[in-house]
Amino acid sequence: MLTVKKTGLYTSVQDLGRFGYRKLGVPASGAMDSYAASVANSLLENEEEDAVLEITMTGPTLVFEKSTYIAVSGAELSMKCNGEAIEKNTVHKIEAGDEISFGQLEHGFRSYLAVKGGFLTKKILDSRSFYFPVTEMGKIREHMQLPYDETLEFEPKISSVTTKGFYKENILKVSPGPEYAMLNDRQLETIFTKDFTIAKENNRMAYQLEEAIEGHNKSMLTSATLPGTIQFTPAGKLIILMRDGQTTGGYPRVLQLSSTAVSLLAQKKYGDHIRLRMH
Amino acid sequence: MSKYPITIEPFGEYAMLIKWPEEVKEPILEDMLQFGNFLEQNCLKKGKWELVPAYHTMAVIRRIPIEDSANLKRELLQWYENATKAELPERYLWKLPVCYDEEFAPDLKEVSDKLGLSSEEVINMHTSSTYTVYGLGFLPGFMYLGGLPDSLQIPRREHPRMKVDAGSVGLAGQQTGIYPQESPGGWNIIGNCPIPSFDAKKEPPSFIKTGDKVRFYEITEGEYQLFKLESEVGIHQIEKIKLDADS
């Protein structure tokens, strides 16, 4: 077990998410930056579906009760083991009683802490991903315990990697969404030349972009949406649905982010800038 | 199956979207559900693919990226051609209890006044229609119901509520429905259904599927408390009638 001493801003257990329940309105969920989650898991030679902790902006303080190995990837967030700085993207041995804590966020927004063998919280609808009200809670709580298996010895094939280049990018690649054809030349011009700012309204469900473009009065019947779908409101706002986003929606879906772009966007926070570019 | 001029386009790396003519019509919904059933039974492996039908569109989603969307589009069109004898999935008409008492219906009086009806008339109309589930989405277990009588159509509340109770039955435009969980919302609340439409501990977690039908019936507050208790302990039997009985 691991005990949560402090929760951090918004920390949750995430894996690859749910599959097969979207027709009942259950979102996909899963790690927002699936790239970082997979880097952390692969350093530990875990399965790709093993559950990790998704840390948002400020990190938790965690006390490990059994020996294991951990790796953290994603945002540039300083990290300590028993008060001593340790590196991200590196495999670390953890002894029973070790305390992991986090410090200053320098760049990015979300970090992923993987443990050897993955977190073994209960699966609900075939996934360990937190999503309230499908799971009992949406984020971890103080004093709660998270189960994992003890690992005494592990020789990693690769003990550290670098992901710096990936996160420098602020261009998000998109493809046309189902209602792409409704966009006129002026709207297209704005969408692909404007510097957009991430609005305050950003979370695991959706990221809103601050700047509005020329609006519309197209109404449509509700239809499926996906993580990465860009919805276009009549007032001209662009809303990018993320991993916990609703499974259907009534706003035109003008563009669709690539899965790499969803991972990149998951590292952006309020006030950051992005650009959209067609594949 | 009837044949409609469907279109199929890629929707991101993982999905294709099949569109039927954009209309709220039962034959379109049924054609789509028949095709979905055919795909699940004959073409798409369970666990690797999932379908999200709603109104006149169906998303076909793969667990891993679709490598060749042009080829999948050809296959889907071919399967649609072949699916002449596809059957509808098993469908039910669900009878759901609603308590329209004042404490569960904060907007019933205002709605009645605006519609120029008495509360009894609103309740009578709401309980005498059969609604079709055109889709599930927005929140886990939320039903998009079609078939609201014109005389009950009323705009959303001007100021949405920060908190609408789970089970709340609302009216908004051409829609009526139940809030499966407590959430913010702008619908006019005229009652509450004590039977949860979504429970993650159950398999399947939602008893209602797209294509099913719903009828509401009025219950007293006493029955409401009883049904709520019964469903919490898992002994409440929801009344259902099988549709499309074998001919």
From TrEMBL, chain A:
<keyword id="KW-0067">ATP-binding</keyword>
<feature type="domain" description="Carboxyltransferase">
    <location>
        <begin position="23"/>
        <end position="279"/>
    </location>
</feature>
<dbReference type="InterPro" id="IPR029000">
    <property type="entry name" value="Cyclophilin-like_dom_sf"/>
</dbReference>
<dbReference type="InterPro" id="IPR003778">
    <property type="entry name" value="CT_A_B"/>
</dbReference>
<protein>
    <submittedName>
        <fullName>Biotin-dependent carboxylase-like uncharacterized protein</fullName>
    </submittedName>
</protein>
<dbReference type="Pfam" id="PF02626">
    <property type="entry name" value="CT_A_B"/>
</dbReference>
<dbReference type="InterPro" id="IPR052708">
    <property type="entry name" value="PxpC"/>
</dbReference>
<dbReference type="GO" id="GO:0005524">
    <property type="term" value="F:ATP binding"/>
</dbReference>
<dbReference type="GO" id="GO:0016787">
    <property type="term" value="F:hydrolase activity"/>
</dbReference>
<keyword id="KW-0547">Nucleotide-binding</keyword>
<keyword id="KW-0378">Hydrolase</keyword>
UniProtKB/TrEMBL annotation, chain B:
<dbReference type="InterPro" id="IPR010016">
    <property type="entry name" value="PxpB"/>
</dbReference>
<dbReference type="GO" id="GO:0016787">
    <property type="term" value="F:hydrolase activity"/>
</dbReference>
<dbReference type="Pfam" id="PF02682">
    <property type="entry name" value="CT_C_D"/>
</dbReference>
<keyword id="KW-0547">Nucleotide-binding</keyword>
<feature type="domain" description="Carboxyltransferase">
    <location>
        <begin position="6"/>
        <end position="208"/>
    </location>
</feature>
<dbReference type="InterPro" id="IPR029000">
    <property type="entry name" value="Cyclophilin-like_dom_sf"/>
</dbReference>
<dbReference type="InterPro" id="IPR003833">
    <property type="entry name" value="CT_C_D"/>
</dbReference>
<protein>
    <submittedName>
        <fullName>KipI family sensor histidine kinase inhibitor</fullName>
    </submittedName>
</protein>
<keyword id="KW-0067">ATP-binding</keyword>
<dbReference type="GO" id="GO:0005524">
    <property type="term" value="F:ATP binding"/>
</dbReference>
<keyword id="KW-0378">Hydrolase</keyword>
